[in-house]
Every structure is written in structure tokens, then in C-alpha cells.
Amino acid sequence: MLAKPGRYLYWDSSVFAAYISGEPGRADVIDALWGEITSQYENRVVTAMTTVAEVAFASTEKNRRVLDPGVEQRIDRMWSHPSILQVEVSFLITKLARDLMRSLMQSTITREWRPFTPTTISGPSSCR
């Protein structure tokens, strides 16, 4: 549960793609988590600007090779939601993120390593 307002959670394109695609086992969790995030005005979901290009269609459109204007409208509404904070990503930021992940791996080498990424979301408790 998000106890304090002003929390920032990073989601990559796979989280948004699962949400738009209604992916079983993930979309409902993402929806619940997003509802919890937006319950406090100051909370934000942070993502890179490149995510907009990466989430271009739902999986049904990709599989059927038929575009649905309704899906594009849902995607556009999602990006314009006030809880979404899109940031420019520089080489320095991506290198720091990589170094952080490598540091995490090194510090957990003796345990089973499962880094927290947006794709490991299994429930609202994941954001603590």
C-alpha cells in the first residue's frame, strides 16, 4: 500500500503494454495498483519518453494484424493521464540505472537473484 503521498514508481513499456492489451494476470493488478497510485494526487508513475513509441498497439492488433482506432484512443488517454510523468532519458541516466542493477545483482549473489522490475509486478505489495 502506498502510505505517503508523493511516491514515484517507474514502469517500463511492458507494464503499459500489458495494461493496454488486457493481459491476464497482469492487467487487473496494474489497474489496481494504478488506482492506488492515483488515490493521492501527488503520486506519479514515471516512464521514459521512449515508452510512447514502444506501446504502439495492443497484442490483439499485433496478432491479428488489424489496427483498432479504439485501442489507439485508449493509448492516447493513458499517456495524457495526470498521474503519468514522462521523462527524457539520457545516456548518463541509463548507465546509472545499469550500474544500480549490477550492484543489486552483486549484493544478492548469494541469494536467489530476482531484481525488482516493472515486469515482476505480482501485486500491490510490490511497490513498497
Which key phrases capture this entry?
Rossmann fold, single chain, three-stranded parallel β-sheet, 128 residues, mainly alpha, 3 strands
Could you describe the 3D structure shown?
The protein is mainly alpha-helical. The protein has a single domain (about 10-125), classed as Rossmann fold, CATH 3.40.50. Helices cover about 45% and strands about 10% of the residues. It is built from 6 helices and 3 strands; from the N terminus they run E-H-H-E-H-H-H-E-H. Helix 1 (about 15-20) crosses helix 2 (about 25-40). It is globular. The relative contact order is 0.19. Residues about 120-128 have low confidence and may be disordered.
Output the number of helix runs: 6
Multimeric status of the protein: single chain
Rg (CA only): 16 Å
Largest sheet: 3 strands, parallel
Explain the layout of strands and helices.
Elements: E1 8-10, H1 13-21, H2 27-38, E2 44-48, H3 50-54, H4 59-64, H5 69-79, E3 84-87, H6 91-107
Parallel strand pairs: 1-2, 2-3
Helix pairs in contact: 1-2
